[in-house]
Amino acid sequence: MLQLDSQFQATTMPQSTKTAIIVIGGAEDKVHGREILQTFFRRSGAAEARIAIIPSASREPAIIGDRYQRIFEDMGAKEIKVLDVRDRAQGSDSYWQEYVETCTGVFMTGGDQLRLCGLLSDTPLMEKVRQRVHLGEITLAGTSAGAAVMGHHMIAGGGSGESPNRSLVDMATGLGIIPEVIVDQHFLNRNRIARLISAIATHPDRLGIGIDEDTCIIFERDGWLQVMGKGTVTIIDPGELSHTNQVDIGSTDPISLHNLRVHILCHGNRYHVYKRALMPINNV
Fold first, then answer.
1. d(CA 133, CA 54)
2. Which of 13, 67, 145, 220 fits 57 for a cystine, CB–CB 3.0-4.6 Å?
């Protein structure tokens, strides 16, 4: 778990670190400015970057892995390997573990988050990634399904366009990279606010983060996240929740939540995950 600096003051400007966790809402620009992908490339060491691409969430991992490999080659990365894990035994492969031990950035692609966790959760390969991320030794990015797996509790699927209710969201166990959060992706683009609220109603000790397409959060080791991209990030904070009927209703009945806090953040806005505090706008 990432640790909060005990000397933190809410009004202090966060100091950027070289490494970070970059959580992308999916459909990031891969053709034009590539702002989000360029940020991952720079945070991974730029021309000295040694990048591992994990396309295991995809049903076409060779195709998607090759696409990202060409993107990072065009940017000038020093070395790139596609870790095409297709069964759990490969998660113990010593060759790939050795590369993860020396790489500077890991990128998890989109696809199916259940597939990604089923292949990599609790494998030596993923444990090595988690360890190096938490030590601040590498930058980790995940897009779409690769974003959904960041929390301990993970949204595995569900519907949209309904009032919040327990049947609207299917939950599973994620990779626990940022265990305090529940992430939903393609957020406002696919009208997923009700399912994230439904997930938070079941897990009110977590923080909900909904990320739009071509948008990301850059999560620093000091607990600050910063929004980058064309869309918005929705923060669902149940920290001051005063009432919910969640435990008293059926699975398809609408959920009542009182005093739920919602923040809508756009490019450049900052929020502290542990303090549940926004950076004052005049300091951004």
1. 15
2. 145
| 16 counts as catalytic | no
Task: Please list the residues that pair with 261 across neighbouring strands.
Answer: 237
Which of 44, 56, 58, 144 does the annotation list as catalytic? 144
Both structure tokens of 85: 């894990």
Give the three-class secondary structure for 35: helix
Count of other CB atoms within 10 angstroms of residue 116: 28
Q: Look up 186 and say whether it is catalytic.
A: yes
Give the pLDDT of the chain (284 residues) as one tens digit per residue: 343 333 333 333 334 448 999 999 999 999 999 999 999 999 999 999 999 999 999 999 999 999 999 999 999 999 999 999 999 999 999 999 999 999 999 999 999 999 999 999 999 999 999 999 999 999 999 999 999 999 999 999 999 989 999 999 999 999 999 999 999 999 999 999 999 999 999 999 999 999 999 999 999 999 999 999 999 999 999 999 999 999 999 999 999 999 999 999 999 999 999 999 999 876 54
The active-site residue out of 162, 180, 256, 267 is 162
Active-site hit among 186, 198, 213, 220:
186
